């Protein structure tokens, strides 16, 4: 009985160390326009689930910086476009499987998409 207990204890300990911690995306709800706010606790950022019309980079930057979102009576106006830099400030990462940037982390880690496989997993997002 003692050997069985030691084996189960060892197995549980090894299993405990091998399970990776993974913070899931959290759908915080919708704003007054019906667009979702989705929080990524790994990077401590909130994604605004909205598709803005195609425009050049400077127009998109201007749109994001002027965006105001009314969520539960609170106005959020500190929006920006995602960065291609890694969380460490290095980069940007080139090629496939780059998970250090905000977009790479969302695509590969949070949504579980694969390199070259297209956007097959969208999670709670409606406007990707």
Describe the protein's architecture and organization.
The chain is α+β, with helices and mostly antiparallel strands and 128 residues long. Helices cover 28% and strands 17% of the residues. It is built from three helices and five strands. The strands form two sheets. Strands 1-2-3 form a three-stranded antiparallel beta sheet, with no helix packed on it. It is globular, with a radius of gyration of 20 Å. It starts with a helix and ends in an 18-residue tail after the last helix.
How would you briefly describe this protein structure?
The protein has 128 residues and is of the alpha+beta class. It has helices at 2-18, 57-66, 102-110, and strands spanning 25-30, 36-40, 45-49, 69-71, 74-76.
